[in-house]
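Batch manifest, entry 17 of 40.
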Amino acid sequence: MTSRRVEELAAEARYKRERLALYRARAYGSQDTSAERLRKLEQASEQADQRLAAARRAPVHPREEENG
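Output type: structure tokens
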């Protein structure tokens, strides 16, 4: 795993969390929302966090860093 890939996964996880937070805020407001859509966003956020955690646990290979 390269540090660049970990950075990409971190950005993806952050994006998914932000989308979920925005949708939750929308649900508390006056706009119509869907429980199914909320579940899908929660699941996508959890999966992105899991991918990031796995990437952070994986060893960084120096050769992958050079080819980056």
